[in-house]
């Protein structure tokens, strides 16, 4: 299951995304859930919660979560939230060295 995220992921937006992603995943039981962040222009800590929750959900389904397309700013926020410790897309959320 591939989900392309776009716009701002704040508290209100994350709640809507969470519901839609969970419904889609529960109906098709994917082996892999890919969250494509290439269209995300802003993300706050609610986005970290969104990713963590989907990671846990996929783990209970014996599946995996992949994160792709995150901008450097979003990647940095993910790292600050500890998401770089999770095995999502081979550590792709680690910020690049400057």
- Sheet having the most strands: 3 strands, parallel
Q: Determine the mean pLDDT.
A: 90
Structural class: alpha/beta
Listing every helix as H and every strand as E from the N terminus to the C terminus, the arrangement reads EHEHEH
CATH structural class: Alpha Beta
CATH topology: Transcription Regulator spoIIAA
Weakly predicted, low-confidence segments: 91-98
Strand content: 25-35%
Distance between the termini: 33 Å
Helices, by number, come to 3
CATH architecture assignment:
2-Layer Sandwich
Helix content: 40-55%
Overall structural domain count: 1
Please give the number of β-strands: 3
CA gyration radius, whole angstroms:
12 Å
Strand order of the largest sheet: 1-2-3
Protein name: Anti-sigma factor antagonist
InterPro entries: Anti-sigma_ant, STAS_dom, STAS_dom_sf
Pfam family, one: STAS
Domain STAS: 1-98
Description:
The structure is a single chain. This protein is of the alpha/beta class. It has a single domain, classed as STAS domain (Transcription Regulator spoIIAA, 2-Layer Sandwich), CATH 3.30.750. It contains three helices and three strands; from the N terminus they run βαβαβα. It has helices at 11-28, 45-60, 72-80, and strands at residues 2-9, 32-43, 64-68. It has a three-stranded parallel beta sheet with strand order 1-2-3, with helices on one face. α1 links the parallel β1 and β2. The longest helix is centred in the N-terminal third of the chain and has 18 residues, at 11-28.
């Amino acid at each position: 299951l591939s989900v392309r995220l776009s716009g701002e992921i704040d508290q209100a937006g994350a709640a809507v995304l969470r519901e839609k992603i969970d419904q889609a995943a529960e109906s098709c039981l994917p082996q892999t859930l890919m969250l494509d962040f290439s269209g995300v222009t802003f993300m706050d800590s609610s986005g970290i919660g969104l990713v963590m929750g989907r990671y846990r959900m996929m783990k209970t389904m014996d599946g995996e979560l992949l994160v792709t397309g995150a901008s450097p700013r979003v990647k940095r926020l993910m790292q600050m939230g500890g998401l770089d410790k999770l095995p999502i897309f081979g550590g792709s959320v680690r910020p690049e060295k400057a």
